[in-house]
TrEMBL record:
Name this polypeptide is given: peptidylprolyl isomerase
Organism: Ruminococcus albus 8
Role noted for this protein: PPIases accelerate the folding of proteins. It catalyzes the cis-trans isomerization of proline imidic peptide bonds in oligopeptides.
Gene Ontology MF terms: peptidyl-prolyl cis-trans isomerase activity
Pfam families given in the database record: Pro_isomerase (PF00160)
Keywords: Isomerase, Membrane, Rotamase, Transmembrane, Transmembrane helix
InterPro entries for the chain: Cyclophilin-like_dom_sf, Cyclophilin-type_PPIase_dom, Cyclophilin_A-like
PROSITE patterns according to UniProt: CSA_PPIASE_2
Start and end residues of each PPIase cyclophilin-type domain: 70-257
Gene3D superfamilies (alphabetical): Cyclophilin-like
EC number: 5.2.1.8
Length: 287
C-alpha cells in the first residue's frame, strides 16, 4: 500500500527552508553582534536611504497618547494588548484594523512556535494552510527606522516579493509575534563592545527581542500588557521541529480595537524596567 503523504502546512511550504536554518538559535547567536555593527552601514530605511544610527527614536518605549489605537487579543491562553503605529506603517495598520473590525481574527489559530524566536498566528486553519476564508492580500513592506524587533513586537508576515535582485517580505494577514533570544553574559559583553546606537543596544538588553529581524519586515505594533499570556504561548511545546505546530490547540478567540486610554499600562514604557525575567535574560555560558 502506498504510504500517504502528509499535507504540508503553510509554514512548511512557504518558509520552512529559511526558518529551519537561518532562524535557529545558534545562527541567531552568530548574527547577533553583526546586526549591531551594521547599524553604522547603509541599511534599508523607510525612505530608501541610509539609516543613521544616531537618528533612531525608540517610539516603542514612549508613553502613548490616550487616543493611540491598540488591539486586544483574547486567546485561549489569556489576553494581551498591543499599541499600533499608524504613522509609521499607515497602509498596513489601515488594512489590519479593517480585518480586526470585520472579526477576521476571531477564532483563528496560532500555527507555529519557534522557541526563543517567535510564534505565528492569525491563520484560519490550525496548521497554517490557506482556506477559502483566508485573506490573501499582499502589501508592500513598510520598514521604518524607529521600529525595532523587541520582544512583543507585532510583525506582518506575507510571501516573498520583489525581483530576483531585490527580494523582500511582503505584508499579509498572518502575524509574527516576536519572542527573545537568551542574553548570555558573553552576548552582553559583545553587544556592549559592538558600537552603534547605545540607546538601542540598551533597549534590546533590557526588553529582549530578535535583533537580526531588524529593518527587514513591517513592524506595526508592540505588546505592552498581558505578557503572562504572551509568554505562555511562546513556551508551548510543538509536535515536531519540522512543522513547529503547537501540540496544544491555541486560538485567538477574539481581537478588537480600542485605545490606550482604555487599556493603560504606563510601567511598560519605562526603559529601566525589564520585560524579561532575569532568568530569561541572562544565562550561564555553559547553557
Amino acid at each position: 500500500m502506498e504510504k500517504k503523504t502528509e499535507k504540508k502546512n503553510y509554514y512548511q511550504v512557504k518558509h520552512s527552508e529559511r526558518f529551519k536554518t537561518y532562524f535557529r538559535f545558534s545562527l541567531i547567536a552568530m548574527c547577533f553582534v553583526l546586526v549591531f555593527t551594521l547599524f553604522q552601514a547603509c541599511q534599508r530605511a523607510k525612505d530608501g536611504g541610509g539609516l543613521d544610527p544616531d537618528d533612531v527614536e525608540l517610539i516603542q518605549y514612549q508613553l502613548p497618547k490616550d487616543d493611540a489605537p491598540v488591539v486586544v487579543f483574547e486567546t485561549s491562553e489569556g489576553s494581551f494588548t498591543a499599541v499600533l503605529y499608524p504613522d509609521e506603517a499607515p497602509e498596513f495598520c489601515k488594512y489590519f484594523e479593517g480585518l480586526v473590525n470585520d472579526g477576521y481574527y476571531d477564532g483563528t489559530y496560532v500555527f507555529a512556535v519557534q522557541d526563543g524566536v517567535y510564534f505565528m498566528g492569525g491563520s484560519k486553519a490550525s496548521d497554517g494552510t490557506d482556506t477559502d476564508s483566508t485573506d490573501k492580500k499582499q502589501l508592500e513592506p513598510e520598514i521604518h527606522k524607529n521600529l525595532w524587533p523587541f520582544k512583543g513586537t507585532l510583525i506582518s508576515y506575507g510571501d516573498k516579493g520583489g525581483s530576483i535582485f531585490d527580494r523582500k517580505i511582503m505584508s499579509g494577514s498572518r502575524i509574527l509575534f516576536v519572542d527573545s533570544v537568551e542574553f548570555t553574559e558573553d552576548f552582553i559583553k559583545e553587544l556592549d563592545s559592538a558600537g552603534g546606537n547605545n540607546d538601542l543596544v540598551e533597549a534590546f538588553k533590557k526588553k529582549g527581542g530578535i535583533p537580526n529581524f531588524s529593518q527587514q519586515y513591517t513592524i506595526f505594533g508592540q505588546v505592552y500588557d498581558g505578557f503572562e499570556a504572551y509568554d505562555a504561548i511562546c513556551g508551548k511545546e510543538v509536535t515536531d521541529s519540522e512543522s513547529m505546530r503547537p501540540k496544544q490547540t491555541i486560538t485567538i478567540e477574539r481581537a478588537y480595537m480600542s485605545t490606550y486610554g482604555e487599556h493603560k499600562n504606563d510601567s511598560f514604557f519605562d526603559i529601566s524596567t525589564d520585560t524579561l525575567s532575569s532568568a530569561d535574560r541572562t544565562v550561564t555560558d555553559g547553557e
